[in-house]
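Consider the following input, taken from an annotated entry for NADPH:quinone oxidoreductase family protein (Nocardioides guangzhouensis).
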Amino acid sequence: MRAAQVTRLDGPSAIEVRDVPEPEPGPYDVLVDVHRVGVSFPDLLLSRGEYQLKPDLPFTLGVDLAGTVVADAHGFTAGQRVAGVLAHGAAAERVAVPAAFTFPLPDDLSYDEGAALPMNYLTAQFALVERGGLRDGETVLVHGAAGGVGTATLQVARGLGARTIGVVSTEEKAAFARQAGADDVVLLDGFKDAVGGLTGGRGVDVVVDVVGGDAFTDSLRCLAGGGRLLVVGFAGGQGIPEVKVNRLLLNNIDVRGVGWGAWAMTRPTYMREQWKALGPLFASGAIRPPIGATYDLAGIGQALADMDARRTLGKTVLRVR
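Applying the prediction step yields:
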């Protein structure tokens, strides 16, 4: 079978689609024929050896997938449509996925949308509910609001009853974020004052930051009393910001880390519980992943290069079959 593999740590241009043996499922796995694979920021870091996980070479990329079950296993039936998530290894024609990381795909969601769901939407749910303690009627500010995690966070927050404000870098991204679920959108340049205007000077209850960098201090200044800044990642490439803790004391605000993978991968039932919690948002239509671009499997290098250049909107998807 074909798989997109990293054979040397030279970035997207060095990824190869190679023939590899089909997987043998373990006793706790579900064997899945892959239809779609979601392209994720960890794939980019893995291709360069810059991720915290460092698999031995060669290894297969791919975190999110959607496809069909090959044989009955662990409550799943042959032919059933599913989504799944792996630390890596999904970008192949067939994969063995732990049953705990395999989820039934709702009938009204496509394979493209299914491949956009697991990592981004489970991260958003973990950030907002588990780490952020989001309450109905609160206001959530989302950085990188036109990206995969950003659009997922907008939709989950709105589905949970929050007002959403997206922060983006261009007018094109602003339009995309509005379509994805932002009640309001502001441009990154001058966002603090714009947010003050939208909230009557009060500020927001939660900031979800997937970008990091220079905007961090102004994000803290956007928080209302009792507000929470959720650190999800540093996709902006501007380095890791620092915080002066007196700001937290004076305004009764928090900075909280959001490490979904480290949390969920060590709690065997947690992802399935999250998927169940998202069920009402699937049913209501609050969750509808926006697909920005699609490539075939051999196009994974270009897809990651486009992500690295910040040319992508929403979720990028590879069409395997």
